[in-house]
Amino acid sequence: MVKAAYIHIPFCQHICHYCDFNKVLMDRQPVGEYLASLKKEFAITLAETPVSPLRSIFVGGGTPTALNEHQLEYLVAAVREHLPFNSETEYTFEANPGDLSKEKLKVLKAAGVNRLSFGVQSFSDELLRSIGRSHRAADVYKAISDAQDTGFENISIDIIYSLPGQTMNDFKETLDAALSLNLVHYSGYSLIIEPKTVFYNLMNRGKLVLPAEETEAEMYEILMEEMDRHGLKQYEISNFAIPGYESRHNLTYWNNEEYFGFGAGAHSYVNGCRNSNYGPLKKYMEPLYKGGLPVMDTHKVTLTEMMEEEMFLGLRKVKGVSFRHFNEKFGKDADELFKNEIDRLKSAGLLVEEDGYISLTRKGRLLGNEVFQSFLS
Ligand code: SF4
């Protein structure tokens, strides 16, 4: 049964230079109509696939906190009306430090939201400016302190390393500042230059200076060491938490479990099918006006694909993939099915087998994508 729901809010006040998410500048967008469409999508989907209280709800974007208080109130009321959840549910909102007022925080708290994930990226104002973020370090401190004053304790922040022009010293300062906040969860990603972004165009014109690959690897090593030193256990390639505060929502993806995906461009995995919604707002909203779902593409996942995905996604977790669980789920043995891949990656020092689990080595974490690809036919 589906246990998780992702809700996409595609509006942003500014567009960051590295971002390839499905998002639009908020100005003059039909925000009210979009939220009404989301509500319809909740209703139709849940009528087709009823569920018991969800384990997690994640509202991401875009920037959900770009919505004003009234829009937020409408959204959380629609969630409450259609998506079953209770006090055990992990209910997360992604937030931009610059636009989360105390009033908005109160709306979220009253609605049962119990986790906030801030897109901080860096504590250097200069770097924040150069990557096109609208907030500054002072906004982060204020937003986190306001969130804590409102009663939020399950707070996560994202940071990005290997930014153009970022030195090792810049990165260490950001890491120190992030850790001094004593939060329960951190995510650290290396910058990826995606097509159709400002950075991609600059790179093609030879105008983007990125840290060397060795520097990037060193930053990742330092990230892992510092998190560990502060009692934050790495549980996924890019995620660290005080034990008990791992993101249940993201674990749904890495455990290869099913989830709803609502909103423009959202993906879902329901009843063995991976579906994707139309990305452009108009295309997303049109079918919903007529009482239909905005699904653009649907794919029934074959057993072979499911097993490959179990490895591809599961190996992101530091714990890795349990052979016993794999067998219980599919009635087959992963170590036999993927013997060649596992042997090769073990000899390359990228995978290790221990206590019935196959997992990435420290070196493997640095070369994760290479390992994951090996399991896809
Ligand atoms: S705020 Fe987030 S979603 Fe919006 S442009 Fe920046 S990175 Fe992309």
Automatic annotation (TrEMBL):
Family, as annotated: Belongs to the anaerobic coproporphyrinogen-III oxidase family. HemW subfamily.
Keyword Transcription regulation: no
Name this protein carries in UniProt: Heme chaperone HemW
Segments traversing the membrane: none
Any one of the GO CC terms: cytoplasm
Pfam annotation, one family: HemN_C
One GO molecular-function entry: coproporphyrinogen oxidase activity
